[in-house]
Every structure is written in structure tokens, then in C-alpha cells.
Write a structure and sequence with these properties.
Elements: E1 2-9, H1 15-23, H2 27-35, E2 39-45, E3 50-57, H3 60-68, H4 71-80, H5 92-95
Length: 106
């Protein structure tokens, strides 16, 4: 099982709205995440907008590609794209760069 952690930055002026969207993630988006291998997927948000994402999956690149192939992900990314800083033209899901795991206590 791969453990994947990534960082993104939510715009400070959009934090409340970002939180609201994640209180009501579309059921079809949740289903697509489950079906494409995004297990134990968790987002943590700091008050300055630092977003820490964590998930467990058999193969992150395969899980990401499977989500990319869904229609619901395209709609979700289109809605969420304006919430983030420094995406350099990428969608939020394309800008996720896994951090190096240096320690894990089982």
C-alpha cells in the first residue's frame, strides 16, 4: 500500500468557501474516488491556506489516471481550480506532488 501526502495552497480569501465545498462533496465524486483506489483520503487545512492531503492507494499514478478519466472529476476540478494559488495552469489534481516519506510508525 502506498501512502501519499501532498501540499497545495488555498487562497486566503477563499478559505471559508473551500471548507463549504468540502462539507458537501458530491456523492458521485466520493464514489469515483473510492472506485478508483483513493483510500483513507483526508484533507487538512491550516488557517493560512496550507492544504495537506493524504491518501492510501495501491498505485498512486494509476489511481490518479483513473480519476482523470472520470467526468465527475473534470467537473470538480473546474469548480475547485480557482481556489488555489500557484497552479501554473494545471488543475489542482495535476499539481499534487507527493512528498517523500522519510518515516512511518506502524
Amino acid at each position: 500500500m502506498q501512502r501519499v501526502c501532498f501540499l497545495l495552497k488555498v487562497r486566503a480569501d477563499r478559505l471559508d468557501e473551500y471548507r463549504e465545498h468540502h462539507r458537501a462533496v458530491w456523492p458521485e465524486m466520493q464514489q469515483a474516488l473510492r472506485e478508483t483506489g483513493w483510500g483513507n483520503y483526508t484533507l487538512f487545512l491550516r488557517e493560512d491556506g496550507l492544504l495537506v492531503g493524504y491518501l492510501e492507494t495501491e498505485d498512486f499514478e494509476a489511481a490518479r489516471a483513473a480519476m482523470d478519466a472520470t467526468e465527475v472529476n473534470a467537473r470538480w476540478q473546474a469548480v475547485m481550480g480557482d481556489f488555489f494559488e500557484s497552479l501554473d495552469g494545471a488543475r489542482p489534481d495535476e499539481a499534487m506532488r507527493p512528498l517523500e516519506e522519510v518515516f512511518h510508525l506502524d
